[in-house]
Amino acid sequence: MKERRRSGGRVWLRVLAAVVLLLAAAAAVVLGIGIYILRGIDRVPINEENLYINEKLSGGGTAGTESDASGGGAVAGTPAQEQAARRAVVNIAVFGVDTRDVQSFSGGADTVMIASIDREAGRVCLTSILRDSWIDVAGYGSMKLTDVYRRYGPEIMIQTLNRKFQMNIADYVSVNMYHLADAVDLIGGIELEITQAEMEQINRYSGSQELLTAAGDVRLNGAQAAMYARIRQIDSDQERVRRQRNVLVGIYSRVRELPAVRYPSILRTLLEMTETSMTYSEIVSYLPLLSRDLRLDSLTIPGAVENAYGGQNYPGLEGKWVWVYDYDTAAQNLYRFIYEDA
Question: Is a pLDDT exceeding 80 seen at residue 37?
Fold first, then answer.
């Protein structure tokens, strides 16, 4: 009996040792993949104390007017609004930088988006803010939104978005638009539905050796997708930002079709095309979303709710194409979209 107990004890020791070795091996693999990916990150930390973060968004408040804010806070809302605000939604600024310099993240913000990620609901909201929005920047005067990034960089850009839209953005991702074609080619192209007018613009200006032969559902290569995202001659700024969102959704959909074993190499290559304030662990924490069927919703500001003026003859700004609208109304609209329309 004693011998049997000793034998059983040795078996359990061997099992325990094997489990420890397997966990160690798994940890080594994860660490190795992590180090591999981490080398691709161009991380630029920002000081959250300078971002005018609306802390009440995560503590039970609703977006109020800018004059309601105290240190970036907002006034309390109804119980339903407070419950919605407590949901763990992460808001991240996404900037598409208009530069032809392969290594640069300096330039105008050709694309300005807020990506709002609600893991619990499995929902991602993409809010596009028109680049020609005329906006006042604390301590720097008024200018187009695109120029805030060009002149003062991502920290002041985020501060301005938080202050004017009552947001709690603490991180950003900037994409060098020069690399957009490379990103699309890396994943084998993307599927999009295009119009005849869009097809003609793509064929005329993309520089691609491949010509599209018909409108409708087509697969675009990198050069074609980059041109599609830049089209603005045939319609409006609102349609342009819709196309930019379509490219992002197309990239997401295409990546989901690829085997998971390709994710580390794809992620590293994509990260080399971006600059971000996010840490490696934060980035990796979002990877499981690729395996979920997410609800993707979109909004453009300004829209009909903001009753915006868009043109070149706004008093005092003659000769500049700008969008002028009420930012308190826009902040309320954005809040409803992210927190109440789920």
Answer: no
